[in-house]
Write a structure and sequence with these properties.
Blueprint (H helix, E strand, L loop, with lengths): L1 E6 L4 H10 L7 E7 L6 H7 L4 E3 L8 H15 L3 E4 L8 H6 L4 E5 L11 H8 L3 E8 L9 E8 L6 H24 L3 E4 L2 E4 L18
Parallel strand pairs: 1-2, 1-4, 2-3, 4-5
Antiparallel strand pairs: 5-6, 6-7, 8-9
Helix pairs in contact: 1-6
The structure holds 5-O-phosphono-beta-D-ribofuranosylamine.
Length: 216
Amino acid sequence: MRFATLISGRGSNMQALLEACAEPGHPAKPAIVISNKADAGGLEIAKAHGVPTKVISHKDYPSRQVFDDALHQAIVDSGADVICLAGFMRLLEAEFVNRWRDKIINIHPSLLPAYRGLHTHQRVLEDGVRFSGCTVHFVRPEMDEGPIIFQACVPVRADDSEDSLAARVLTWEHKLYPLALRLMAEGKLRVEGNTVHIDAPLALQDGLMNPCPLPA
Ligand code: GRF
């Protein structure tokens, strides 16, 4: 399986994917990294991994549809058959998403369907919720929607700032995204309706409480 990664910024999730795929015998190969921003830090990281990069700036296109068409063409030309969105800050039109149905995955820094969209950590802190986390999911035309592959849950601490919470969540993003990509490359993810069936031995962890009374 060859995958294209779409980024707009620092590219730490992209880096986690590229590092995982560099392991011998990994079933996924990076075909291209595309950024809609010329100054995305992730482009240098991709080059350092020897992965072809391309900048396709949305500002150079008269409409979303024409921009999406250019993206689509570049991805097809790269030989990629799967797309990973990794901090890609442009909404993709339904036509694009439907062309790649069940072949685009995304990582989002919240426990979807809660906190779709931007500024997730800020909103989580404002709401005083006790847990947050991240989600890897197949992409559907609606923003941050689609069948969920993995979620990881982290506690929100009383003294958290946006940065400290983001860092705790990001640690899990970097574990979940490569794992999802590997399972996808191995053909072990099956989408049925809104549910993803994972044909691999995985453990189920039991409940969590936060904050938690101290043991007597
Ligand atoms: C991550 O938090 C990801 O979940 C969200 O955008 C951020 C991108 O960070 N979609 P990076 O560019 O992967 O470091």
